[in-house]
Amino acid sequence: MSDLQQRIEALYRSDLRGSALLIICLWATILFVLFMTWPYIPHGGIKAVVAIAAAAVLIFNTAAILAMVKHYKEDKEFIYGLDIKNADAARNSNS
């Protein structure tokens, strides 16, 4: 595996870890807020709306992050290769 391929894989793995962390934080935050505010919601109808809204946010945001990761995997040579080339060019112009 070439140096460029190794750097691309390292960047992709880093983004993959970051995406997983974002999904975990998203779920933890939404569920925390939902459970902490649940006792203060007086009406059952409002509770249903809040629960459906929280589920929609979790489902759609999780799906969006997973779609982004899938796109990154499909085009990682282009996406990360371009980033690496630009970073190398910027580093070389400063030295």
Describe this structure in words.
Keywords: Membrane, Transmembrane, Transmembrane helix. The chain is mostly helical and about 100 residues long. It contains 3 helices and no strands. The chain has helices spanning about 5-35, 45-75, 75-95.
Show the helix and strand layout.
Elements: H1 3-37, H2 44-74, H3 76-94
Helix pairs in contact: 1-2, 1-3
What about the largest sheet? none
| Unreliable residue stretches | none
Order of helices and strands: HHH
Which structural category fits the helices and strands?
mainly alpha
Got a strand count? 0
How much strand?
A: under 5%
- Helical stretch count? 3
The coarse silhouette is elongated
As a whole number of angstroms, the C-alpha radius of gyration is: 20 Å
Distance between the termini: 28 Å
Question: How much helix, percentage-wise, in residues?
Answer: over 70%
Overall pLDDT confidence: 93
In short:
The protein has about 100 residues and is mainly α. It contains 3 helices and no strands. The model has no long low-confidence stretch (mean pLDDT about 95).
